Amino acid sequence: MSSEDGRDRVDVRIDSPAREGLTGTTPANVYGPLHDPEQVTIAPDGRPMHAQPAWRTDFPIDWPQDHYVERREFMKFMVLTSLAFTVGQFWIAAQNWWRRRRGALPIVPVASVADVPVGGTLLFSYPTEHDPCVLIRTAERTFIAYSQKCTHLSCAVVPHVEAGVIRCPCHDGLFELASGRPLAGPPRRPLSRVRLAFNGDQILASGVEERTV
Amino acid sequence: MSVNRPFTRAQRTTIVSGMLAFVVIIVVLQLYLLTATMNAYLGGDESLVWPAAAASLVCLLLNAGLLRYLYKIERTRQ
To answer: What CATH number does residue A173 fall under?
Structure first.
């Protein structure tokens, strides 16, 4: 477009094709906003920005976005925790399968009757050398045997035959001598009982009985 | 006719808070399941080992589904 003096004149219309590309002439609706319209800074106390301390004005944080992201990240963490618990469940199931696959425990001689006086005890290992057990003779013809591992945290328990209890020295857990049931302290499950059999004068261990109550 | 509009951030925050409440409840349930199962297993009770594992797996799938939905609504935002 030329004027009467022969000079080109710029079309004043903002959307004129001739103005395309000229600095400062692009219509405002051509480009999107630089920021997400939801990206608004709201201070945690809810007061307007001009009432906030200078450091908050200098380094504004988009708190609503921050709240959203922290909930989302916490949810991811919780789902990972859920995965860990599920893995733990299947680990127990695998251990259970392995225990069943092992089959019946062997029958092994523990001691002879004469080795344990009435009111006395004898330590032995069953079914493996890493499973300490205690044999107790409570009367002339009465023998009982338990795993020596406390059902709380596997400390070695100590029988007190005269008091009729088995005590765990770590956290003062008490078990009944006759049944192995917990009487006091943190243990919730009875001691594992070792099944005994007799072959003449020999005392044999023939299995382990684990109990929940 | 339904209009499939993306959620606003405020709506997504509400949704994620609700889902988080569900997920936390489910995870607490799983923790209870794990401790109860461990107690039963150590006590020689094998009857609830596999049902508890299956229940825990269902809980995990539920949680994973909720997380997947969260990512889905994140992708559809403008």
So the answer is: 2.102.10.10
